[in-house]
Amino acid sequence: MSLKLLLNLMITALMAVLLVIGVALTIHNSQENIRAELESTSALALHLIDKELLYFADEIAEQKLKTPFSLSSLGQIRHLRVEYYDARGNLRDSNQAEFAAAIHNPPPSWFIYLMNVFSRDVEPRKRVIHANNKLVGEVVITPDPTYEITEVWEDSIGMLKLVGIFFVAVNVMVFWAVGKALRPVDQILEAINQVEQGNLDARMPPFRLPELAQISVKFNHMAATLQKSITRNHKLSQQLLNLQEEERKSLSRDLHDEIGQSLTAIHADATAIVNASVLDTPVNQSAKAIVTVARQVITIVRHIVERLRPETLDKLGLKVALEELVSTWQQRYKMQTCELQIASDLAGVPEMVSITAYRVVQECLTNIARHANAKRVTLDLWIESGELAIVVQDDGCGFNPRLASGFGLTGMRERVTGAGGELEIDSNLAKGTTIMVRLPLNRAFA
Ligand SMILES: Nc1ncnc2c1ncn2[C@@H]1O[C@H](COP(=O)(O)OP(=O)(O)OP(=O)(O)O)[C@@H](O)[C@H]1O
Ligand SMILES: [Mg+2]
Hints:
alpha+beta; Beta-Lactamase; five-stranded mixed β-sheet; four-stranded antiparallel β-sheet; rod-shaped
């Protein structure tokens, strides 16, 4: 969960707790006020009725006995329900009969429930009325808290609206302020991501906060050091690869010129002995054996020479060398089919690009033969925008390039990056492997 969201949630939770406490306090205080007010109003009403009764006790005319207090004209008394019952208990008069003031926005039932649930009911008060020494009826005063509760509800709604606006404003401000304060974190993450993806030119901007400014300086220093060391490593491996190629070249030349020549001489001399000696004599047989072994060793040396430094690459160019490589490879691993498509004229490809391309294809084909178990292999080469593009595709078992740990792929990547190019491996366990390489043609080699 992001820090922004966490802070907003914490504020919301705090506000909700405060709101619940506020509502609880409001309800509690209101209950006390309402109770006190209802009791005092009932007492006052009773007092006035008592006074009225004293004054008129003996003079209530028979015709007035039905409604002696004209209660229906007291409809505006909001907190009390005043009712008059005759001697038989029938309701004769009430202040709520006609004029009860309507409540326009009644509070919700849960609020009324909360207001009532914890408060003790205020008991109704009664006065028995006698006239002419006869019981004529009874006045009942019942406190009615509905209007008070409505007032409290209206006040609370006003307060809730205010709290709501405050709550939204605080959340927006916190969101904005935290977002502003965390903006450098996004920039820091962006720079780290860039470096992770191999863009070593990525740097952090200077920050105003001293702690972040230090992170920026240290990170930039670290990225620069990493960049230098990786460049140095690339240069070193490129030099090693160049040296290796040179070594191979001179080794293959020595093998070809020295050993090859000597073997050819041995083969020629032994053949001469075979021709000069009498058939089936020990000398003749030994000379024949020497001829056979010399021929075998010549073939082996030729293979070694070819592998070390393909003569065709130097003499006839990349296209022919690749065609020869593919054909030898197909003969060796008979079940494989390989389509080689060379879409451009590769005559002008520089020597180092040629040898890099040749080694890449060589390693790809060796890997396919050793690991892929493929049925179909395609090899495409073309020149585009000053680059030699190579795509080797097989329909084999595929692999996870992140987990692959051999010298072949590592060496291939080193060669390609050392040549200023790019290598991409797209392998899928179900579909096989595609290796894409791009090599710039006009790059100065280390
Ligand atoms: N075309 C492919 N199909 C399936 N798996 C492959 C393919 N190419 C490479 N791999 C897998 O990647 C691994 C690493 O290959 P890499 O060429 O680096 O090493 P290697 O071939 O095992 O040994 P070497 O160092 O002799 O080349 C291999 O062991 C193999 O599991
Ligand atoms: Mg390999």
